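User: Batch of two.

Assistant: Item 1 of 2:
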Amino acid sequence: MAVASTNSAVKSASAFRFASLIEAAKTRFARYRLYRQTVNELSELSDRELADLGLHRSMIRRLAMQAAEEQYAR
């Protein structure tokens, strides 16, 4: 009986790890999609529009990464 309960506990633990791995991948993908969306939207703005927002074109990637990390903070 001890063998059966130990075996099911190992299966349960590996299922939990697999579920966590899938959840982490989903979160990573959602973070990447938000990053790409932010970069694309800000890149479409003219230099004048960016300046009105107090931004420079060189800041786009950093701001997009920061927005994605804040949205999906662990």
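Item 2 of 2:
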Amino acid sequence: MKMMDIGEVAERAGVQPSTLRYYEEIGLIRSVGRHGLRRQFDGDVLLKLSLVALGKAAGFSLTEITAIFRQDGHLELPREELRAKADEVSRQMAGLRILRDTLRHVADCKASSHLECPAFRKLLKTASKATQPRKVPKG
């Protein structure tokens, strides 16, 4: 397997070398050696960095992502947390669709006053419901 130095990994992964050093410090990735002063990584590090990017995009913290990677190289997938994140993303998507529709309506509405437009009022009502904090049941 071809070894890559930290600069090549950083370029291919789209992150700064300092990010890679930090990820190594917290145990997300591991270098396999050094060539002079430059850390060397195997090709699998790019897959792992892709998983880290996916986890970050999903809203997981680096601590949570670190816990997913076991020392033996396997993944310990928190399936319930993944389902909860997927549900959260669905809610965000619904809210963004409402926002998109409201913005398009405002841009295209021919009414002399948006506040008198029934469609705009309906969109506002829907948008305000979508942005209200959810009540968590007690108990």
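The longest strand covers residues 38-41.
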